[in-house]
Design brief:
By secondary structure, the protein is an alpha+beta fold. It is about 20% helix and about 20% strand. The structure holds guanosine-5'-monophosphate.
């Protein structure tokens, strides 16, 4: 199976501006930022999207959610931020490897497009 672009970043086959990494996840700047700060938090395990979480992923899911604030802090988002997980074609997902967008650095509007 062809590696996802995020797997290539995890494997250091393509460069990325990495701001956090541990044994289970990695966070790097989005190449097409939609806000002054736009970071992607990605599990090292290949999970398609939030719809594909299994019971055995419970610890990893918890780990990812607890790392959101650490990543947001490291990115300087002390005034708040938005966490987004696009899921499937209607959800606007373009990379088939679970990722949380962490966006901030300006006042974000609602609803999204
Ligand atoms: P999605 O559309 O699946 O929710 O989000 C995928 C995100 O990955 C997009 O915001 C896109 O800009 C980002 N992206 C795609 N390719 C690359 C890449 O090679 N490097 C980085 N850093 N981000 C990427």
């Amino acid at each position: 199976m062809e590696k996802t672009i995020f797997q290539k970043i995890i494997d250091r086959e393509i460069p990325a501006d990495i701001i956090y990494e541990d044994d289970q996840c990695i966070a790097f700047k989005d190449i097409q930022a939609q806000a002054p700060v736009h970071v992607l938090l990605v599990p090292k395990k290949l999970i398609l999207n939030v719809d594909s979480f299994e019971d055995s992923d419970r610890d990893l899911a918890g780990h990812l959610l607890t790392k959101v604030s650490a990543v947001a802090n490291a990115a300087g988002l002390q005034q708040g931020y938005r966490v987004v997980a696009n899921c499937g074609s209607d959800g606007g997902q373009s990379v088939d490897h679970l990722h949380f967008h962490i966006l901030g650095g300006r006042k974000l509007t609602w609803p999204p497009g």
